[in-house]
Amino acid sequence: MKLGASAVMAPLAVLIAALAWGSAQAALPAAYAAMVVEPAGGSDRAEFDLDAALLRARNENKSLYVYLGARDCPFCRRYEAFLAKNAVALVPHFQARYLVVDLRSALLLQAPKLFFRVGGRSLNYSDWMREMGDERVRQLVYPSVWLLDGQARPLMQMPAGTGTFETVEEQLEILRLVQ
Amino acid sequence: MKHLRRTLLITALLGTCSAALAAPGGLPNAAHGDSSPEWERLRAKLFPGRSIETTPGRLQVQMVAPLRAAYGASVPIKVVSKLPQRPELFVQRVYLFVDKNPSPVAAVIELTPAIGQADFETRLRVDEYSHVRVVSELSNGELHMDSRYLKTSGGCSAPPNRESPELIGKTVLQLPEGLKPNAVTAAQVTVLHPNDTGFELNNQTVMFIPPYFVRSLKLSYNGQPLLSAELDFSVSENPMLRFNFVPRAGGELRADVEDTKDRQYVGRLAVGIE
């Protein structure tokens, strides 16, 4: 099967556009009013402290939409671009129920180097996933999303990556916890 | 069984063609009970002219699966039968399908009344948004079908764990503690095996890794057959099957496994009754 030049170039153009958008943004769109958490530590051990976000979520009687993105991850840019493009339709649904938390990571921070501070305890990615009964313990994928209550308990098992909720309808399914 | 295997091969090839013709991209949506072109083709090949019960109140089988799984390469599914296995009427055969997979017939399991209850759990590869289906064939010839629509992708090209090739074929049977005689009891068999699909690219050679998977699993208790399963690479790596049986007075559970290189493996477990 021969592919036309446009068939080859179109995905490339999308990727280039996503990377270009990413280099400029590399974050969730401002409309989502995300609470940004930068990691403490270095490239050997990076820790995201979730306790302030958990406290705020409890105070606001909201759940958490925790987004782990990487500054050098094209799939993260694609999801962020999707959120930006559909902010009018999505932001009210996010704000009604969730405190959005933007964890800013990098692809070199794979599971052994990634830590989360939850309830005063520092847990490695795998240990935290195992403790929550999250099947993503097998592999860390960028980007990842967790839906948590104010006690850091998972609201539902989420898929690896965001590829299955990059339409408005499907993003709303996620926000509504449709299993 | 040879006829069945040939039929499975034909349907697998049909699936490959349909996958090749499928439009790339896009995010389809469907209801759990919907049909699909792939399913209609399979149905015509495997169950020509036969009616299949799908009415919720009359169904004798239920499929349980998540809308989105953590990984497309390992989607947990559960089959629940509403019919106890009794000699006068029992589930004789269970078919598992993944409509959109390159090889859509994931498993065909022949059952005996000795399992007590035709409930199963396993993990499947799901390559793209697709229905997964169970068709339960009763000993009176009735067919019952339930389905779920799954949103996941990449299940057939995801790399399995290749850290311990020397363990390929190791077959492990597991039982809960405190077995009670004559009670329907859950057991589990796991075969350590990459179950290669043929769709994974080797990054060094830039060649596809050939398919290599468990194709047959037979379980018996004290020499009496419990079930016999024809499997395909749509079953996840390290194929696992949770099943039931009725322990009587100790004895041995045995699993006989064969893969696509005709290698045979055996797992055994002594059954201790309280």
How is this structure best described in words?
The complex is a heterodimer of chains A (179) and B (274). In chain A, helix 1 packs across helix 3 (74-85). Chain A has one domain: Glutaredoxin. The longest helix of chain A is centred in the first third of the chain and has 20 residues, at 5-24. Chain A has helices at 5-24, 51-59, 74-85, 87-97, 125-132, 168-175, and strands spanning 35-37, 40-41, 46-49, 63-70, 98-105, 114-118, 121-124, 144-148. Chain A is α/β, with parallel strands linked by helices and 179 residues long. In chain A, a hairpin with a 4-residue loop joins strand 2 (40-41) and strand 3 (46-49). Chain A contains six helices and eight strands; from the N terminus they run αβββαβααβββαβα. Chain B is mainly β. Chain B has one domain (2-11, 32-270): Sandwich (Immunoglobulin-like). In chain B, 11% of the residues lie in helices and 35% in strands. Chain B has helices at residues 2-21, 37-46; strands at residues 61-64, 75-81, 91-98, 105-111, 120-124, 130-138, 143-150, 171-174, 185-191, 214-221, 224-231, 240-245, 252-259, 264-270. Chain B has an eight-stranded antiparallel sheet with strand order 7-6-3-4-11-10-13-14, covered by helices on one side. In chain B, strands 1-2-5-12-9-8 form a six-stranded antiparallel sheet, with no helix packed on it. In chain B, helix 1 (2-21) runs antiparallel to helix 2 (37-46). The longest helix of chain B has 20 residues, at 2-21. Mean pLDDT of chain B is 87; it is low at 1-27. Chains A and B meet through helix 6 of A and loops of B.
Topology overview:
The complex is a heterodimer of chains A (179) and B (274).
Chain A: H1 5-24, E1 35-37, E2 40-41, E3 46-49, H2 51-59, E4 63-70, H3 74-85, H4 87-97, E5 98-105, E6 114-118, E7 121-124, H5 125-132, E8 144-148, H6 168-175
Parallel strand pairs in A: 1-5, 3-6, 4-5
Antiparallel strand pairs in A: 2-3, 4-8, 6-7
Chain B: H1 2-21, H2 37-46, E1 61-64, E2 75-81, E3 91-98, E4 105-111, E5 120-124, E6 130-138, E7 143-150, E8 171-174, E9 185-191, E10 214-221, E11 224-231, E12 240-245, E13 252-259, E14 264-270
Antiparallel strand pairs in B: 1-2, 2-5, 3-4, 3-6, 4-11, 5-12, 6-7, 8-9, 9-12, 10-11, 10-13, 13-14
